[in-house]
Amino acid sequence: MREITYAKAINEAVDEEMARDPTVFIIGEDIRVWGAPLGEFKGLFDKYGPERVLDTPIAETGFMGIAIGAAQAGMRPIVNIMFNEFLGVCMAEIINALCKTRYMTGGQVKTPVTIMGYCGAGVSAAGEHSSCNEGLLASIRNLKYVVPSTPYDAKGLIKSAIRDDNPVLVSYHKYLIVSGFKGEIPEEEYTIPLGKADIKREGSDVTVVATSLMVHRALAAAQKLKRKGISLEVIDPRTLAPLDKDTIINSVKKTGRLIIMNEDSTSASASSHISAVVAEKGFQFLKTPIIRVCAPETPVPFSLALEKIWMPDEEDLIKAVNEIM
To answer: Model's pTM, two decimal places?
Structure first.
């Protein structure tokens, strides 16, 4: 095993897949010189050149369309969308041309496009560069949606996403990049299957389903609560679409309690969907009502002080655990 940063894991995943498969290329803004705004693609242009690392104007509709056409012609494009919010600019291409073509052609035309971009608050990037929008994005039919929380997960899931014959969106939390977050990965090549959750910590009293950066805040809360004799089981879905329902239900069978923690509002969100799944398939196992620890129903504030209050943290989760216990 070796320890690398979250950003390096993203870079290695793309680099390895570009070296393995000549049909893989990257297209997007600011990737030639900067390697994207936070540098996760740094060095790839020097290695693969302008034919496989394509810098574009600020025209998300245009380069998303280029990627879709290239995918239909047999290529495997990676679209650097920068920030999740910018997906709104090219949503017509995503919902219709990208995500429906394989279905509408009876599988004859594939669109293996991997979209990659930042999500999450914590760096004072304000409302237009900080949202997770997990509920909105997970609701798009035929779009697989990946939210890795560790370098190990990021590398393995991105490699699987690029190899998948369906469109996949990978949202990685920018705080995990700018904070230099590190984790261990194997020396040898590996992939992680899409749609399989990971139990980050086993426990017996409360199931906590957390996503992205919130996984680490849930683990921090679990460590504090352990001193009080309360045991949290922390589940990271890793993929929100398709969702690994069985792992969540099996955990609720064991603990009888469920808290969902994510950086999105509660309305029409991933937490809403997970709550509904457990209510439909595991209601009989619940000892208490489901609790959600989520962000307020507002855009992300620019002020660091307000942003800190806006973001769910371990103290919010501990409060919810004390209430549910």
So the answer is: 0.96
